[in-house]
Each structure stands twice: as structure tokens, then as C-alpha cells.
Records
---
Amino acid sequence: MKCYVCEQEGKDTEAVAICIVCGMGLCKDHLIHEELDMWVGGYPFPSEKLDITLPRFLCKRCYDVLNAVKGKKVD
């Protein structure tokens, strides 16, 4: 699989990850990697933060949209 962003720029770069929202193939230069905290507990609030995290790979567009939805400032 090739990086979609690089392909649009006329480059031929192998993808190393896939955006979990839109499914776009991404190279290491175009992916955004975050580690999400994991919580356990019952309704209505999580009660304990776990020592493990969940990896999340996103393209820039999906990252910006998700952060705008969460009320964060988008560059």
C-alpha cells in the first residue's frame, strides 16, 4: 500500500500505517500517532486508569476534525 498524501504530491512512498477513521494509507511523515489512556470502571465514571495505553494512528485531516469536536484549537 502507498501513502495517499504522497501519491497526491506525485511521490511513491510505502504506507506504514492506516488512519483508523478514514482508512487512508500513511507514510511515517504523514501519520499522527497518539497513545490513548485506558480506563476501567462502571457507569457513570471510569474509576481506575490502567497502566497500558491504546495506540491510535490518524491522518492530519481526521486528527484536526476529532480535536475540533473535542473543543481543542486546530492549527
---
Amino acid sequence: MNSMEADEMAALVAVLETGSFAAAGRQLGRDSSVISRRLKALETRLGTRLVERSTRRLSPTDAGQRLRERVQEAMQLIHNGEEEARSLSASPIGLLRLTLPTGFGRRWIAPRLPEFLARYPSLDLETVFTDRFVDLIAERFDAGVRIGRLEDSRLVARQVLTMRRLLCASPAYLKAHPPIRHPRDLAQHACIGFSPMASHPVWHLSRDGKQHAVRTRSRLATDDIDALMHAALQGTGVAYCADWIVANELREKRLVEVLPAWQVVGDETMHVIRASAQYTPAKVRAFVDWMTEEFQHLAWPSKAP
């Protein structure tokens, strides 16, 4: 399409949007006679009438309406392409609004955000820590981090981690109580459950392709990771939780993994999510890439995809 043909298409869309040559001319910054000539030239070139002319208002014929829709679709594609190209070359800038899971966000993401901001000095950040379901689109968040199943098909998601579930206890607790060599031994122990994930009172473990279910006694079930961790550290019992909750304590040997040869059934995934769109703003792409990079190297047994 040459520039003259593009001008003719623009004239058609403007005439049908505004309903008159004068208004279309004002929209395009041209005299109404120029708009009229361009529309006439387009009709002549296509060999069909595109606009019904009346004293009150200009209205589309069927052919004119169909062409208008196609031109608008093409213009939107061009606009999206320009925005995408601009976002690829532009530096992250402006306000980035994020929603983050409370426990994981406070423990692992929040301490790293100053480094993220230092990397992008033109970027400002607003974070909301919550475990409720957040509608990114309705609440105008740019992106978020979500643990567990994704249910909103409107979202674009990148998996960052697979989080392993495990059992652990303090060395003092294990020393003072009977040894745990098999899942069935857990029935004789006090247990601590992380209620957002624990299928208490029955815990499921697997080994060599075989599953074993054991009914446990939960001395404490909580949705707070600090309460769970402190209870485990103080010898309350055997804790059921995700590896990220106790990663530091395991590394420092203040907690010990129980039944490490067994797999606690029910790994969970963590995704960075954003609203589906034709292009990704540079600020959102920067956060998604940073999260992927940052959490591939954490010192715990979770696996990056």
C-alpha cells in the first residue's frame, strides 16, 4: 500500500467515525474538500460505493462497513507492532504494580527488591502482599507472583520454580523421640501442618513409584510460616511444609529433613503472571526476566524449570 492509498483509507475511517467531511477533515488536519476527493478516489479505485451521502449524515454501505472494519484491524496491528518495537528498545520506566504472595514474598522477594530497583533507576515499584485471589486486570496490576494452580485463562504465565514439599524437625526433637525410618512411624509423633498445603491428618509420601498414606496427629496446624518454623525449631514436632519455608534453617542444620529418601506427594509451582496482551511493556518484561534469573540460583532444593 502506497501513501496515497493509506490516505484514502484514513479518510474513509474518519468520515465514518465522524459522520461528515468537515469533521473528518478536522480530525485529520485537512480541508473537507481533500477528504471528499480522497474518498471519491477510493470508491473509483475499488469500483463500488462505500458511503451513502445524505444531507444529515454520511453512513457506510455494506462494502464500506466491511472495509472500515478491516482497515481498523490493520491499523490496530500496526499500532501494536509499533508499541512492541518501542517496548523492546525502551528502558523500563514508570510505575510497576505487583501483587505478591505474603509468606514467600516477604521471605524471599522483598529482600531482593532493592537490587531490582537499583538495576532500573527509572522504575518505581508498588507491591501488595496478599494471599487472596487477585484479578490483575480488574485491579490494574502489571504483574504478580502466584503459587499453586493457575485458573485465569486470560493471564500469561512463566513458571519460575517447582517447590518441593518435605518433612523436618529439630535435632533436639529427633533425639528425644523414637526414630523415624518409615512413613508409618509418623503416626507415633506429634506433627505440625502448614494448612494451605497439608492434607492433614493424612500425609502422602512416595518412594520407588509406590505411595504410602499415614494418618498423623497435628499438634499444630497453621497458615503462618513463622509460627510453623518457630514451632519446629522449639521441638513441637515434625513439620510438613514447602522447602522454601525452612531452607535457611535446613542449611544451618537447626532443622533436619525427615525421611529424605521419601518424596512428600504434591509439588507446587510458582509462576510470574501478567495480563494477556499483544505486547509486553519493558517494565513488566524486566520483572519477569529478573524473577526467572534470581530464583534459578537460590540455595534450596526447589527446581527451576
---
Amino acid sequence: MVISSTVTHPDEQRQSITCTFASRYMRDPVPKFKLPESSIPKDAAYQIINDELMLDGKPRLNLASFVTTWMEPECDKLIMDSLNKNYVDMDEYPVTTELQNRCVNIIAHLFHAPIGEEETAVGVGTVGSSEAIMLAGLAFKRKWQTKRKAEGKPYDKPNIVTGANVQ
């Protein structure tokens, strides 16, 4: 999570965004840290934000983290069709929850999880890889604690070893 700070210096508060490509839509500068006094055309708002985002790195060149750089067009369409769903509202979107549960079971069987014929796998769907690894770490810690308790060994100080490249 990024913690943002508020801009308080008067010089910074007066900064505006350079709208090179959006200038065809507007004449007045757009404040950088405040909403403008009047509305701007939606095309201009898109162009301003898109121009700034172009300064980010290119996902296809990012070999250091887990990003999806390409998918089949049908996958892109499914994502676009689902953007307006609140993933955590399971009562409102029961089919989405059912699909998540089926995916958990498919992955469990793929990795030969020790579950019986009448059992379902235990798992959780996540939105991002960071969330997924944190939940996996917590699950592993619980499993380790249960095992240590059963063995009569201390279970309050796990020793987690990570590589130097952990973020």
C-alpha cells in the first residue's frame, strides 16, 4: 500500500499539468493537486491521464515481478465484463463465488492435494499476487503451528527464511 502525503507548500499547490496532447481540448492549465474550477471534456481528462501513465514502465519489459503482459482476447473480454462486480460481495454475485470455489478445487486437484472424494478443497480467491502470497504465508504458519502443538513443541516463534530478493 502506498501512503500518500498532502501537498502543503504554496508553490507546489500552484503546479499545473502540462497538457501537450490534450491542449486541443482546452486552453487553461489543469491544476496538479486540485480539481479545476470548471469541468473539462472527458476526452481531455482521458488524454491527460493516459499521457502521464505512458511514463510508467512497459509491462512487457517487466521481468522482475508477476504481471500479466498478454492474454487471449476472450480473457480480456471476461475481465472487462466483470469490472463492475464487487468481488467481495458474495451474496450479490453468487455465481462469481461458485466459479472461485471451482477454481480452488481445480487447482487443488492439479497439484494432487490430499482431499477425499466427498471433500472440497479449502482455498481463497484473491485479486492480486501480493494478497495471495500473504494469505498463503498465513495458511502455512497455521499449519506449522498445528503440527508443532501436536508434537508438544514451541509454536510461538516461527522462523521464516526468505531470499535477499524478497520485496
---
Amino acid sequence: MGPSIRMDLVLTAAPAGWLCSPTMRVLLVSHRFPPHSAAGTEVYTAELARRLQARGHEVHVFSSHKDTGRDDLTLERRSHAGVPVTEVINNLYHESFEQTWQHPGVDAVFREEVQRIDPEVIHFQHLMYLSVGCLEIARETGAAVLMTLHDYWLECPRMGQLVHADGELCNTVEFERCGTCLPSFAWTQSASARRAGQSLAGLRRVTGLDLGPLARKIHKKISRPSDLQAGVDPRTQESFATFASQRTDDLRQCTTASVQRFLAPSRFLRERLVQWGIDADSIYYTPTGLDPLGEKAASAPVSDGPTEVLFLGSFIPIKGAHVLLEAWGQLDPALRSQAHLRLHGPIFQDADYAADLGRQAKAAGAMMGEGLDRAGVQAALARADLLVVPSLWFENRPLVLMEAMGAGVPVVVSDLGGMAELVEEGVNGWTFPMGDAAALAAVLSERVRTGPESMAAVSAEALGFPTWEEATDQVLEHYAACLASRGSAG
């Protein structure tokens, strides 16, 4: 039996803020969740959970976690900031590529959780590492079903980034080209890694000893990017092209049949998904919330010291740190002496790329440091005069960009995707052609030449976005509309 529909939630014309009072049982579904992962989607989901709970709603989170020291497809229950979280252990022991989007084991676990929680609203944030079957299960409960689109995972089977294995941006998804990309994609564990993981999980069952963290630490040190070359086997190319086509058909059919409303944080992403096949009337532009992180924009004195330029992002090629360092190296040495460039980010498995960045940074006179926690990010932004986001892919609504604007820091971004949409030239930042180090160098030269004072005049305009309270109101209004639709249909 599905959850009962509360008729006090069907008044969709209510003013903003009215939806703070009636309580709902809400299940948020995300591929990953803090503290195990703190990228944009995960941080957004955690913040939305906190905000909904603060309004008096009963909030639960369903997510996944990779932990080879535990049995695959088992559950871990914990709490994060007072919100109950259930994580299914998914160690990527996939038998076929199809299980990267349609996983019967995950479906079974999710069905049990939905029956246990009995939510009135199920709000999907991401399905990577989970299963598209979760959407069908959600629909069958009679709950309101929504999905926020954080990236291009529905379109692109390689992490939803629309970047080919050869590093080229995919402006359109062509299945034959997918066939030359996916053979080098690490979508499942190797046989040896699987055996090792199963042994670790067995040891933990018997002794309680968890060697997973040690094993992951060793693996991280010795691992290197795959030596596979994309598309070396024509038969493999053909099979993966077929998988890509099948995946698109499955996802399109399931999402359009199961999801009542799609929420798109950027207009750019909304238009792409309309082209992909989602009804335009079902996708609502719903920007994420932005709260000022401090008083920098309004009250901080303008520094007469060096211009502080900042990069915050993972040290992986598509984030474009190498483009920034190349541009920095092109600045006139006398001008460069008037500024500091600091780069902070975590190093994942591409240690060779990170090492190359280190050499670039040393040659260009830049400082390269480790990733920062939330407090560290806020502290870094408080000191910064300019944030550079030189990404080489269609970023949607990058968290770091929103945080910079919340801190009153102007930005320089690549001219594509949701990034460019957020920037009004000369008002809250500047754009440059993606990947063009010379063009970026020209922008940086002008900014350093004019100094922090000129950027302080810009930064005060960076706060013209919905607050988190307003964004939460919008989400709740979508919930009420979907519940009303379910009630009228029933």
C-alpha cells in the first residue's frame, strides 16, 4: 500500500514559506553522501536534508558506498547531522555493463528500504552506483517522485561528464563514438580486486577486523590510470555502442514514466535534457540556494598587497588546472610578482597528472596544496580576490562557483555550460574560451594589473541568487504540486 496523501499539502498556489508547517516524510536518494564524498551533488543533498529537517519534515537518505572490506549489497545505517542515512555497499562487482545502470541487487535493497520508510516524497538526486529500477519502485509506492538533474549522467555512461576517453568534449552523444570510449572505462572490479575484497569482507565477518582502509590506502598509492586504449577491439567497440544505445532507451523510458517533475539547476542543463527526450513541461528551472559565507563583499577592506588568485577543484584533467598553470606561466614576470596563485584539490587515481601539475606549478611560481574541508574552503575564499574555474567540460552549477559568489569573490570561468550562465561579464566575473590558455592569461593579466580594488567593486554584485531558504521553499512547492497530482490521479 502506498503512503496516504495529505490534502493539506495540495494547495500549490500557496505563497513561498507556507510549506514550512505541514510535515512530510521525505526520502532523498543520492549516489554518494558525506562524509565519504563531498562533491557538489552530495553537499547539496546534505544541505537540502538539513533544511527540510529544520522545517519539521521527517527526512531519510538512501545512498551507496564502496567499501571492499564489507560484503557487497549489504546495508550500513548511520546518521549525518541528525539525518538517518542508509547506504548500500556497492563494490562494483558487476557481471555486465548493464549493471552500471540497471542493478537487480540494488533494486531489491531499495525496495526493502522504501517499504520500511514509507515515504510520501521520493526525491532522486543521482542514480550512479544505484539503479534506474529504483525509479520504477518509487513510482509503484504511490509517493511523489522527483529528480534533480545535477549532471549529464542520463546522457553519458562515462560518469555523466560528456568527455571522451581521448579527452575531447562530446557536444552530442553518438553511440558509435561511445563504443570507442567505454572499453577503457573502469566500470567493474578486476577479478583479482574482487577476490581480495571478498577475502577482506570474509575476514571482517569472522574477526571483526576491518582492513579495508589499509587496503584502499595501498591501492591508492600503487594504482595508475588504465593502460587500456579506447577502442582497440572492433568487436568491443560494437558491443559497447550497443550497450550505450540500450542504456539510453532504458533510462529515457524509465525516467519519463516514473518521474513527475525534473528540477534543473541551470537553464543549460534543462535545454540539453529536453533535447535528450524529456518533455519540456516536466523540467523546471530550479536554481540551488546561495547564502553569503561571510561579510567579505560588504565590509572587508581592500588589500593593498598581492592579488590573491585561487583554484579549488579536483586535480583531474577535466577540471583544467593545467590550463590555468599554463596561462599563469605566460604572464609577464613583473606582473606575476604582484600576485599569488594557490591551487587546492584532492588527488584521485591520476597521480601522474598531479605530478605534472606539481612541476608546472613550480615552474610558474604557483603554490599547489591538498584538498580543503568546508571550513578550509571558506577560509581560502575569505582571503581570495579572484577564483578561476577553467573546467574543460559542461559544468552544471559548480558548488565552488556558488560558494565563491556567496563569499563575494569574483570569478573567471570557461565559457560553456552552466558556468557561463552564472557570470555576467564585468559584473560578477569574466569568461574565456574553454582551454585557451592565452585568452585566460590575457584576462588574468588585466585583473592583476588593475589590482584587488577593481575586483572588490565587482564582487559586491555577486550575490543576486536565491538564498537557501528561498530555494527550499521552491523545492517544497514542487513536492506539494506532485502530491496534489498523485492525489487527483488516485
